[in-house]
C-alpha cells in the first residue's frame, strides 16, 4: 500500500495519535477513508470517460478509413466510356439514333 511498510505505518499512526489526539483520531481516520473512496471513484470515472472517448475516436477513424477505401478517388476514362455505352444501350428502340446517316 503506497510503498509503506508496517514499521513506517505504525510510526505515522503514532505521530498522528500525538498530533491529533485520541478523541479525534477515529473521526479523522473516517474522514480520510471517505476522502480516499471519493478520490478512487472520481479517478475511475475519469478513466472510464477517457477510455470511452479514445474508443469513439478510434471507431471514427476506422469508419473514415473504410469510407475512403470504398469511395473511388477518380472515375477512370474506361469506366466513363462503359457508363456512356450502357446509357446508349438503355435508350428505347424507337428513339432516333445519333448518326449522320439517319
TrEMBL record:
Q: Which UniProt keywords apply?
A: Cell membrane, Membrane, Protein transport, Translocation, Transmembrane, Transmembrane helix, Transport
Note down the stretches annotated as region Disordered.
Answer: 53-102
Gene Ontology molecular function:
protein transmembrane transporter activity
Tell me, what's a Pfam family for it?
TatA_B_E
Q: Where is the composition biased (Basic and acidic residues)?
A: 53-77
Q: How does it sit in the membrane?
A: Single-pass membrane protein
Where is this protein chiefly located? membrane
What's the domain of life for this entry? Answer: Bacteria
Q: Which ranges are annotated Low complexity under compositional bias? A: 81-102
Subcellular locations according to the entry? Cell membrane; Membrane
- Any one GO cellular component localisation term in the record: TAT protein transport complex
Please list the GO biological process terms of this entry.
intracellular protein transport; protein transport by the Tat complex
Q: What does this protein do?
A: Part of the twin-arginine translocation (Tat) system that transports large folded proteins containing a characteristic twin-arginine motif in their signal peptide across membranes. TatA could form the protein-conducting channel of the Tat system.
Question: Oligomeric state and partners?
Answer: Forms a complex with TatC.
The Swiss-Prot or TrEMBL record describes its family as follows: Belongs to the TatA/E family.
What is the official name of this protein in its record? Sec-independent protein translocase protein TatA
Q: Which organism is it from?
A: Desulfobaculum xiamenense
Q: Which gene encodes it?
A: tatA
